[in-house]
Design goal:
This protein has two domains: 140 residues, Murein tetrapeptidase LD-carboxypeptidase, N-terminal domain (Rossmann fold); 143 residues, LD-carboxypeptidase A C-terminal domain-like (Glucose Oxidase, domain 1, 3-Layer(bba) Sandwich), CATH 3.50.30. 27% of the residues lie in helices and 23% in strands. The protein is α/β, with parallel strands linked by helices and 301 residues long. It contains eight helices and 13 strands. The mean pLDDT is 96. The termini are close together.
Length: 301
């Protein structure tokens, strides 16, 4: 796996929205944070425009991201919002310059389309981390500090609280994944995740239990769990109860979907759409340990 160069003070970094439109106040706050890190934010042309729910029409959003990918002086590209939109343009991007001069791509949620394509097609690490949109609920020190550490090459290692559904064990493998619904939708596209021999990270927001179950069964039927080495479960938040009730919690639904496999499962990692969104280096080699007393994830390289 190719690891992009880590950032240093004075580096330029790009801010774009290839998905939903951006609320100006969130951008102003993110610019302050990056400036405090001694970085030089460069705002893309998608910061401000609105085209329905998205940050401009498809052509603008594609061109804006393409320009940031191609500029050598831009050392990292931050998606500022999630929502919807990347899947409409990601297959039209030209990664020829990026392949020779990789840079950190940062975001989560809809950015899962971009993460999976870059890892499976280009073999390059990316960062599943917090975005400007998260500043709606205020500044979370843990989330932003973990992102800073990842960008500047500082060591990451996390402890995970105990969870009654943890399936004990340990695994060492590259880390892939993101938002469950996106991974499911991406099957058969350039953004399809390669989970073979990997530790898979999953998180989700705002789904009904039956829909959560359907995503998991779809991945299972596509063989996405067959050669997984371990499962790291992030935030499963704002789930809406079915009527009639489905009868299982989100965590029980997930564990039931992988019951026949023997890889370790670690629940409760604080990443995704919850208040705390700790940064994960997707594509990196990690060691996952799950026990009844909790778990840990260590980035080996």
């Amino acid at each position: 796996m190719m690891v992009p160069p880590f950032l240093k003070p004075g580096d330029k970094v790009g801010l774009v929205s290839t998905s939903n439109y951006t609320v100006p106040g969130y951008i102003e706050a993110m610019v302050r944070i990056l400036t405090e890190w001694q970085l030089k934010p460069v705002l893309g042309r998608t910061i401000g425009p609105r085209h329905g729910s998205m940050a401009g029409p498809d052509a603008l959003r594609r061109q804006d991201l393409q320009q940031m990918l191609d500029q050598d002086e831009v050392k990292a590209v931050f998606q500022t919002m999630g929502g919807y939109g990347i899947s409409r343009v990601v297959d039209q991007l030209d990664f020829s310059k990026f392949k020779d001069h990789p840079k950190w791509l940062v975001g989560y949620s809809d950015t899962t389309f971009l993460h999976s394509l870059v890892q499976s097609r280009l073999g390059t690490a990316t960062l599943h981390g917090t975005m400007a949109a998260d500043l709606e609920t205020g500044y979370d020190q843990e989330s932003w500090e973990s992102l800073r550490k990842a960008l500047f090459g500082e060591k990451l290692a996390y402890r995970v609280p105990p969870h009654p559904l943890n399936r004990t064990g340990a695994a060492e493998a590259p880390l892939v994944g993101g938002t469950l619904s996106v991974l499911c939708i991406a099957k058969g596209t350039l953004s399809e995740a390669n989970t073979n021999g990997k530790i898979l990270f999953l998180e989700e927001v705002g789904e009904k239990p039956f829909r959560l179950d359907s995503y998991l069964i779809s991945l299972k039927q596509a063989g996405k769990f067959d050669q997984v080495k371990g499962l790291l479960v992030g935030e499963l938040v704002d789930m809406q109860e079915d009527d009639p009730p489905f009868g299982k919690t989100p965590e029980e639904i997930l564990l039931d979907a992988v019951r026949e496999y023997d890889f370790p499962v670690c629940f409760g990692f604080p990443a995704g759409h919850g208040k705390v969104n700790k940064t994960l280096v997707l594509g990196a080699l990690v060691r996952l340990v799950a026990t009844a007393k909790g778990g840990s994830i260590t980035f080996v390289r």
